[in-house]
Amino acid sequence: MGFTIGDYEIRTDTCEVLYKGAPQKIEPQVFKLLTYMLENPDRVLSRDELINKVWKSRIVSDSALSATVCAARQAIGDTGSKQSCIKTVSGSGYRFIATFTHVENYTKNNTKISARNRVQSDLTTKLKGDVFTEAQTEQEQKPKSLQLPDKPSVAIMDFKDIGTNQEGALLAYGLTTEINSAIARLPHFFVIARASASIASKLNLQPKEIGKRLGVRYLVYGNLEQLGKRIRITFSIIDAIHDTEIWSDHFDRSLDDLFLIQDDISTAIVSATDSVIEQAEIERVFQIPTEDLSAWENYHRGKSYSDRTNLKDVEIAHGFFKKAVKQDPRFSRGYALLSYTHTNRRLLNHTVIKETDADMIKAFDYAQRSIDYCAHESMGYMSLGRATLFTNKVAQALPILDQSIHFCPNGATSLLLKAQATIRLGAENSTLINETLDQSKRLNPHCRIANFNIYMVRAMAMFQQKKYEQANHFITRTLHYNDSYYLAYVLAAICQQLAGNAEQAQNYALKALSLLPHCSLDSCERLLPEAKEPRAILIKAILDIGIPQGDVLKH
């Protein structure tokens, strides 16, 4: 028995899919999913139902289910953009909508007749003098292009040692494996299996063709060159769809310890790959009409607004993240940044803020939901730690942020928040704080918002140590990165006040009040350290520069 959809035959007795009589390659699990959908047409099949019936209730990730649906579409000539056979029902599941014919029996005689007819047809074509050119033969043998998944997709190609030294070849292999493994642990990437990427690396094809065959948008290449006891690693990130290089960098190291070099460089490359691809995705989605955005594309559009320091942009980001989780109700990273925007509302709101306000309740709820849907989503822990930190539960925030860093050691925001929490607790280990901030900057060196936040935290560290001139140096630099954030001007005013420059302090305070008319000691309290002495000094300075008291939280 089986089914017929246009030129496609799905045979359940032999577990085959044929296109115009020719067998098509299909994985067993994909065939099971396709068959179940055909047996249950024109009704919405939820994710849970598919897992129960097709995977027999085994644990299956969202990405694995999406990839299987994608393969099922491809097997019958459908795509995610056309959805002429398998339609995605936002927030609910999938529905099989194509017209098909149910066939009770496929006999062996039918198969033979079909095969004989094909042979006769071929002979007739040849008798007519139709010559099959070599180009046509190559075209027939050329593999089909795989459909791109919704999330950012990447393949780590074999790093090549362009020398002849054994150490270089060993390092090239080790780097490729380590980078592939590290990126595969990041749940927001669709990463091609190492073995498949290695085979593609040996085919000597153009990036565009490799991208089509592997079904990925981005490729990472690397070369190693050794000279004496020095080694240079050059890597590049390619947009395979447009056949363009979007990033390139190199590292020079001494060959003192091969494994330390491997760890150091792989960490740097993974971090660069993560941030570069995210920025490329943000730029790409701005070329797509808003109404056509997928869940991941809505996420990346919102990401471009999420760190801005005005409520208008925060609301724009919030709107995109809401659309993302509506399209995919289990979108862990979407919930993480929904939490992030609710915390931003608390930080930028013009009214008196309480720990129990509605935004912070939602910030905690969405962060926890992110973790519930993906237990190793580092951004979920980052958002939860951030919400905890900015409700003055500083000591509780640190282990949550450590968990975020554990799942993603390249998380620049988590490192920055950890340094901020450590400072507010009054830690005197300035070396550790500086190392954490340096690592955060190294992981995200070209982001203006990241640099702004790093200088803000460095200024707070100097306040903590009563080094007001150094604090002024850092806070002045923040104004070059962001001249519209009231808190930067409050800090600048405090610096001038404590340095005895009352007039300049007043000017900065007036600027802060012009940016946030309801600015008060309460809206500034999140920058205050926990330790009583420096906290008291800063509270007095804030009041002296003319910032009203408001309803500051007592300690």
Walk me through what this model shows.
The chain has 555 residues and is an alpha+beta fold. The chain has four domains: 2-103, Orthogonal Bundle (Arc Repressor Mutant, subunit A), CATH 1.10.10.10; 108-141, no CATH class; 153-285, Rossmann fold; 288-409, Serine Threonine Protein Phosphatase 5, Tetratricopeptide repeat. 56% of the residues lie in helices and 12% in strands. The protein is built from 23 helices and 14 strands. The strands form three sheets. Strands 9, 10, 11, 12, 13 and 14 form a six-stranded mixed sheet that branches. It has a five-stranded antiparallel sheet with strand order 4-3-2-1-8, covered by helices on one side. Strands 5-7-6 form a three-stranded antiparallel sheet. Strand 2 (8-11) and strand 3 form a beta hairpin. Helix 10 packs antiparallel against helix 11 (311-327), helix 19 (468-481) runs antiparallel to helix 20 (486-498) and helix 20 (486-498) crosses helix 23 (532-544). The radius of gyration is 29 Å and the shape is globular. Residues 107-141 have low confidence and may be disordered.
How is the main sheet built?
Answer: 6 strands, mixed
User: CATH class of the largest domain, please?
Assistant: Alpha Beta
Counting helices, strands and paired strands, the structural category is alpha+beta
Counted by DSSP, the helix tally is 23
| Helix percentage | 55-70%
Calculate Rg over CA atoms.
Answer: 29 Å
Compute the average pLDDT. 81
Structure summary, number of beta strands:
14
DSSP strand content: 5-15%
